[in-house]
Design goal:
The chain is an alpha/beta fold. It is globular, with a radius of gyration of 24 Å. Strand 2 and strand 3 form a beta hairpin. The chain starts with 7 loop residues before the first helix and ends in a 6-residue tail after the last strand. Helix 6 crosses helix 7 and helix 10 packs parallel to helix 11. It contains twelve helices and 18 strands. The strands form five sheets. It has a six-stranded parallel sheet with strand order 1-4-5-6-7-8. Strands 11-12-13-18-15-16 form a six-stranded antiparallel sheet, covered by helices on one side. Strands 2-3 form a two-stranded antiparallel sheet. The chain has two domains: about 325 residues, Glycosidases (TIM Barrel, Alpha-Beta Barrel); about 120 residues, Golgi alpha-mannosidase II (Immunoglobulin-like), CATH 2.60.40.1180.
């Protein structure tokens, strides 16, 4: 399973990897290893023997029950490892322990993790794979992240992995894309994704950190391409544009690919800011695809695994718009890190204190009143306000003191036209001050006090808090 050995050039690679991990740890950066234990490189029964094929197929591979010369393919790569067999499971566990003990990685992201949980046919979250990992003392303290699906029947398991696991939240990706594209009927689901996906992770005792929020990943469009192409353009892969998913929930704003139209380019920049802002103010763990912070493009190719050229390389020569986005992303990350109210450790839950309800979260319509049941159901509604009370985090710091923060008011408008909002009163003694306006291309973090009403521009996020004005 490991591509490293202990001799020759490979031995030098081991030393260099350890040194890299050590340097990253010194900077406070954890290392999560992406591991692919669901298949090997051998393809189906027609491919060459490169790994385990022909050694003991019935032990190491899933085969068709009544025709074992053929592989079962839950992965889309031609074969699936037989994790149900103790010998294959031992191989995986030995590999995991090696990466923790010898290489000092902090956790793993399991590719197509549903394939690892299949026993006879179905995905079983109480199966041998999970039991073996959970009882292993070496793996007890590392981070476990699932890509919670495969391509087999019943393979989509978002929200269904065991308590110790975090998950790539595919529902977050899909809902956020559709909401900002302007699809109708997304508001209620968008609210769940913005607040940590409690509908997926709260009932079994998990916390918001179980939700790995992402909009783009190494598979699929980059963020730049998500706002620049309506269709995939994978001709360079040599499969007549038949590979890669057709379900991208993308929108090109009126032109397919690069354009000189200033209006379209301005709207694309704003949509990228909207996506990044949504990602960084959502409860849960944000995952940012490398290059999205400076608008890397793959020219509409959403399946670039086979490319080692300008399509996948990072171009560090940044023009003015890309530099502007890089600075915006850095400030956005700094804002999130500064405020624990934007990354809570627990799900929201209004509490009774001496007979009154202390609201830690509230949803408002444009009239400044609580959103009604009908408002949530209105398919045309694409705008909402969210208040996060900074006095109700209900956690303590390392010295046992209660953690408090500024309260935040988040105004989100995915409609093409602006919406006037009556602002609700802040829960504290300080008035609302604007922190962020994604409609402001030159100075989106311009801070200023606001009045009782504001206009939220079309396809815009505005963020306020009750921080006292600095003198």
């Amino acid at each position: 399973m490991s591509r490293y050995s202990s001799s020759g050039d490979d031995g030098q690679q081991v030393v260099e990897f350890k040194q890299m991990v050590k340097r990253l740890h010194a900077e406070g950066i954890e290392v999560i290893l992406d591991v692919v234990y669901n298949h090997t490189c051998e393809g189906n029964e027609m491919g060459p023997m490169l790994s385990l094929k022909g050694v003991d197929n019935l032990t190491y591979y899933r085969t068709v029950p009544d025709d074992p010369q053929h592989c079962m393919d839950y992965t889309g790569t031609g074969n699936t490892l037989n994790v149900y067999h103790p010998q294959t499971l031992m191989l995986i566990m030995d590999s995991l322990r090696y990466w923790v003990i010898e290489m000092h990685v902090d956790g793993f992201r399991f590719d197509l993790a549903s394939a690892l949980a299949r026993e006879l046919q179905d995905v079983n979250k109480l199966g041998a794979f999970f039991d073996t990992i959970h009882q292993d003392p070496t793996l007890a303290d590392v981070k476990l992240i699932a890509e919670p699906w495969d391509i087999g029947e019943g393979g989509y398991q978002v929200g269904n992995f065991p308590v110790m696991w975090a998950e790539w939240n595919g529902k977050y990706r899909d809902t956020v894309r559709r909401f900002w594209k302007g699809d109708s009927g997304q508001l209620s689901d968008f609210a769940y994704r913005l607040t940590g996906s409690s509908d997926l992770y709260q009932s079994d005792g998990r916390t918001p950190s179980a939700s790995i929020n992402f909009i783009t990943a190494h598979d699929g469009f980059t963020l730049c391409d998500l706002v620049s192409y309506n269709e995939k353009h994978n001709e360079a892969n040599g499969n007549n544009n038949t590979d890669g998913t057709d379900s991208n929930d993308s929108w090109n704003m009126g032109a397919e690919g690069p354009t000189d139209d200033p209006g379209i380019n301005e709207m694309r920049e704003r949509q990228v800011r909207n996506f990044l802002t949504t990602l960084m103010i959502s409860q849960g763990v944000p995952m940012l695809l490398a290059g999205d912070e400076f608008s890397r493009s793959q020219q509409g190719n959403n399946n670039c695994y086979c490319q080692d050229n300008e399509l996948t390389w990072h171009d560090w020569e940044l023009d003015a718009p890309r530099k502007r986005l890089l600075e915006f992303t850095a400030q956005l990350i700094a804002l999130r890190k500064k405020h624990p109210n934007l990354h809570r450790r627990k799900f929201f839950q209004d509490r009774q204190i001496r007979g009154s309800v202390v609201r830690d979260i509230a949803w408002y319509g444009s009239d400044g009143k609580d959103v009604s049941d009908e408002g949530w159901k209105d398919g045309w509604n694409k705008s909402i306000a969210l208040l996060l009370n900074g006095q109700t985090l209900n956690v303590t710091d390392v010295e046992g003191r209660p953690v408090v923060d500024n309260s935040f008011l988040i105004l989100v408008n995915a409609a093409p036209e602006g919406v006037e909002y009556v602002l609700p009163a802040p829960p504290g003694k300080h008035p609302w001050r604007q922190v962020l306006d994604t409609n402001n291309i030159e100075d989106p973090f311009h801070a200023e006090e606001v009045g009782a009403k504001v206009i939220v521009g079309g396809r815009t996020v505005r963020l306020y808090n009750d921080c006292a004005e600095e003198k």
